[in-house]
TrEMBL record:
InterPro entries: Alpha/beta_knot_MTases, NA-bd_OB-fold, Put_MeTrfase-C9orf114-like, tRNA_m1G_MTases_N. This is RNA-binding protein. Pfam families: Methyltrn_RNA_3 (PF02598). Transmembrane segments: none annotated.
Amino acid sequence: MKVAGGNLAILIPSSFGSEERDERIRTYKIGQVARAASVFRVDDIYIYRDEDRDDSRLIDLVLRYAETPQYLRKLLFPKRRELKYAGVVPPLRTPHHPTTSDTSKTNIGDIRTGVVTKVGSDGSAWVELGLESPAPLRNPKGVKVGQRIDVRIFSKTPLTVEYIAREHIPTYWGYRTHVCGPLHSTLSALRSRGWWVLGTSREGRPLDANALIALKGHMSGRVCVVFGSQKRGIREMLSAHVGDGWRQHFDEVLNTIPNQGTHTVRAEEALMATLALLNIVRS
């Protein structure tokens, strides 16, 4: 069953993890973003451009790799140097990452993510689902080889699947990634599309029980949570472009780790702490 709650997005900088020189550790940290996003049912991850360093393509690649079911990764991700240490990325174990490859253990109505591996001259198509063999797709509707789609098992004798739209899947089905421009333009675009924007900053209002109660009223809609970088917070990110009016880009700015015991909070720590708190009022 799909847990109640509206759409949730996070915004992270393209410099995420750049403080680490070891590529293995950087890959692992990006994997922690994937893990946190999956644990707390994040629907969209926006990677905005940080002038300090733009590793958005790497971050996007690792996040998409982590979100892809293991049985499809070789089909969708050819060998690349950037994925050299992808083995350190923790498994997500989300509903769309099934562990069984035994068709006999599947049921009619089960939903799986697949990749179209063959399209016949008559328009028929077959989909790789991580089972013993690809399954024919009912009503292919112009799919293309290499296309990733979500399907539902229509019959088992013979095994046949049918397309299902993501919005009709009744459970959490992973996140989408988006590579964006600078933070100020990304926020303007999101707010124009009706997103309620929450900034996280040490300079924000301390998050307490009353603030959580107030947040609950927004969590049934479209909420995006913005995080700064290791070097610069969201105020510093925006001030160079909008001056003292940086707060106007947010509907609320909160300090989600008040009374912190360390001089700085790492991006991955802020991400996990903030999403855990929001999960209380989103459920």
